[in-house]
User: Fold these one by one.
Assistant:
Number 1:
Amino acid sequence: MELTASEKTILTAIGANDGISRKELAKATGLSPGSVTLLTKALLQGGYIVEGERIGAGLGRKEVLLHANPDKFYFLGIDIGGYRVRMAVSDNRFAILHEAEFLIADVDEDAPKEAWVVASAVRLMEDIGMDTSAIAAIGIGVTGIVDAGRSLVLSIPNAKHWERLDLPQAFRQSFRCPVYVEEGGRTMLLAEKFMGKAKDEADYIVVHSAYSVVAGMMIGGQTLRGARNAGGLLGHITADPNGTRCTCGNYGCLENIVTYPMLEHEYKNRDGQYPSLIEAYRLNDKTAIDVCIEAGQAFGIALSNVVNLFNPVSIYLGGPMFDDFPILFEEMKRTITLRANRFATLGLQLERSSHNHRQGLYGALILAKHELLFPS
Ligand SMILES: [Zn+2]
C-alpha cells in the first residue's frame, strides 16, 4: 500500500510516541479527530499499526493506545566506525532481535570490504534462522565521507583500505531490499530525534567520541550536509596548529587530541608512570588529569565555535570516554560556557546522548525504516 502524506504523518507520530491515543494523535499532528479515525483505520488494515492497552478510569470513555506493528517490517542496521563494525536485526519498533560486532583490525587488509560486510550480515541472519528476504530495508551509517548521492562510501579516515565502497551494489546479490547509506553522525541525529531526547528539537547536535569524533548537526530542522555531503566534520577541524599528522592528511585535527589512542599517546609522551591513562586517571595521577583537562579544553573550544555558528538548543554527547574521564567532560562544559557567545549559550543544554555505544546502530536501523517509508 502506498502511504499518503497524512498516513506518513500519523506513522511518524506513532513512531515518536509509542503507545499514543487517537486523541493525542490529533493533538500531536494537528489533524482533525475525524481524519485521525479514518487514517488509523487504514493503517490498522494495512498492518502498519496495532491497538494496545486501554487507558482511562471510571465511567469516562476508554482510549485505546496505538503502537507500530512490531512484525510489519524487519530491518538490518550496520554501523561502520573506524575501529568497530556493529550490526543488528530489529523489528519494526526497533527492538533488537540479534546483534554482532567486529573489530576493523580483524578484517583482512586485502580482502574486498564490501564482500566482507555482506558475508557478515548473511551470517548474522543465519544465526537467528531468518531468511535474508525477511529484511525490508538496510540502513548503513559510516564514520567517514559518503558521496552526495549517498550510495558510495568515499573514505573512512581511520580504516585503511576502506575506500570507494559501493555497499548497495554489494548487497544486491544476497538481500533483495533497498540499502541506504548515511554518514554516522547523521544517523546518530536520527536516533536522538526518533528514539531519544530531541523529539521536539529543530536545532541540536550529537557528538560521539571514542576512537574518532563523530558529529551530526540538525539546523532549522534540516540535517547539515553542505554542498558535497562533507559538512559538519567536527573531528577534522584544526585544534592544534602544531599538532601531529591525522589519518585524514591534515595536521592537528581535533581527533588527534581527544580520542582514546591520542590521549594515551599524550600520556606516554609526558612520561606517565602508569601502564595506561585510564588506570592513572583512576588513581588521581596529576599527569593523567592534566592530559584530560587539556583535551577537554580543546573539545570545548571546538564546540564553542559550533555553538557560535549554529546556536543549537542542545548538544548530546556520547561515548565511553566521558564515563572514563569525567573531568574531560566537565572541562569541556566549562570551556563552552566560558568561550561561546553568551547569547548563543543562553538555555543551551549539554546532555548525554540517549543510546551510548548503540547510538549509531539505532540510527542505522531508523535510517532503514525512514528512508523506506518516508524517503527524503
Ligand atoms: Zn583529520
Note: The mean pLDDT is 94.
Number 2:
Amino acid sequence: MDNKHIAIGLLGLGTVGTGIMHIITEHQHKLCKKTGLNEISVKKALVRDLEKANGHGFQSVDYTTDGYEVVTDEDIHVVIEVMGGITLAKELIEKALDQGKHVVTANKDLMALHGEDLLQRAKRNQVELMYEASVAGGIPILRALNDGLSSDQITKIVGIVNGTTNYMLTKMSKEDLSYDEALKEAQEKGFAESDPTSDVGGLDAARKMVILARLGFSTSVELDDVYVRGMTEVTSDDIDYGKKLGYTLKLIGLASKEENGAEVSVEPVFVPDEHPLATVNDEFNAVYVYGDAVGETMFYGPGAGSLPTATAVVSDVVSVIRHLRLGVSANALEDSSTTSLEISDERDVSAKFFVRLHAKDVAGAFESITAVFSKNNVSFEKLIQSPFEQGALAEVVIVTHETTRGDFDQTLEDLKLLDVVTSIKSRYRVEGGTADVLEEQNLALV
Ligand SMILES: NC(=O)c1ccc[n+]([C@@H]2O[C@H](COP(=O)([O-])OP(=O)(O)OC[C@H]3O[C@@H](n4cnc5c(N)ncnc54)[C@H](OP(=O)(O)O)[C@@H]3O)[C@@H](O)[C@H]2O)c1
C-alpha cells in the first residue's frame, strides 16, 4: 500500500461480491475520506466464468479463475473472501494470511468450523482477519460485541439470526400460511435457497451462534456444543395456540453464560408478544445482548442481501485500512486466547416448556396426565383443554413452570406410555412469562 492507494483482491463475484464492487465504486469518495486515501480499488478477482464477469462492466479489474493468483499478488494488501464453501476458501485464506495479507470474509460456515485456527494464524502472521458479515449480514453485531460493549461482561445473547426461517414463521403467523406454503413463498422471493435444509434445520443459525458465543464470552465453542432443533416440525396449530397464550414463535439462537458453564442453542421458542424479538418480522434479523453493566440492548436490521452484506464487508476493509495507516494491528493488541467455559449438558438447561398432546376424553385421563408431570417434578403454569373429534379426543396444551430440559423430556417419554395419550403433537421452549390473556379469550383454563 502506498499512501494514496490500496489494492484489494476479491475471491468470488456472486451476490455479495457484486455488492462489494458497487459499494466500492459508488461510495468511493466516502471510503477515501474515511481512510485518508485517494483510491481504493479491486485489482484482481477470482471468478469461475470470465465472460460472465466481464459482462458486469466493472472497470479495471483483472479476472482470473485461479484464486492463488489473487492471494499471492504482491500489490494486493487486503483479500476479501466471498466465494463461500469450506475447502478452497480455507486454503486461499490461509495462503493470503501467510503472505502477510489482511483478510475480510463473510463466510460463516468457515468461521464456525475453523475460525479459531484462522484467527490464530492471522495473529501469528501479524495481520487481521475480520468477519463482520458472517453473522446477521448488515447488522454490525460483531463490532458491537468487540468494541461498543468491550468494557462490559456479556451474559446472554439471544438472536433471530436466520432470515429464511423468520420470513416463514412470520408468514405462518400473520397470514396463516402452512409450512409448505411459507417455504414456497420464501423460495419464490429469494429468501430461501432451493435446498433450504441448513436454514430450516437450524444449522445456519447454529453456525452464527457459535461465532457470537465465542466472541461474546471469549470462549471456545464448537458446532457440536450447540443444541440444535430446526423448524421443520412447526405447524400452524402450534402458532395459533401460541397466539392464544400471548406468544409468538421464533427460531431463536441463544447463548447464555452461567456460573458453571454456558448454554448455546437454536430452537423454535415461544416468546411473549411484548418481547422486542417478537416484533422482528419477515426476513429481518435481530440480536438481543444482555450485559452486566449495560443491561439489555437490541441490534436490528437486514440479515442478508447483496448490499447490506457488502456494507459489512467493506466496513471491515475500512477498519483494516485505518489500522494499516496507523501502523497498528487490532489483533496484536488483543489477547485472542479463549477461556474454557464448560458447555452445560442440554438436560440441565432450565426453562419453561410448551407441550400439545391428544388424549382420550375419558374419566381419569386428566388425572393420569397430571400424575406423570408430578412424578417428574414438572408443574403447570397454564393449561388449555378443548374437546374435538365429536368429543372422543381432547387436545391438551400445557405450559410448564421453569424446569430442566431433562425432566421435561422424561415427562414426554412417560406420557407416551400412557394409554390415554394418543399422541404428543408438539413441544417448544418458552421464554418469559405468560400474558394473562386466557381469561379474556374465554378459553377453558383448567
Ligand atoms: N448472500 C448473502 O446475503 C450473504 C449474507 C451473509 C453472508 N454470506 C456469505 O457470503 C459468501 C458468498 O455468498 P453469496 O451469496 O455471494 O454466494 P454466491 O452468490 O454463490 O457467490 C459466490 C461466488 O463465488 C464464485 N465461486 C465459488 N467458488 C469458486 C471457485 N472455486 N472459483 C471461482 N469462483 C468461485 C461463484 O461462482 P459460481 O456462481 O460460478 O459458482 C459465485 O459467483 C458465503 O460464504 C455466504 O455464506 C452471504
Note: The longest strand covers residues 247-258.
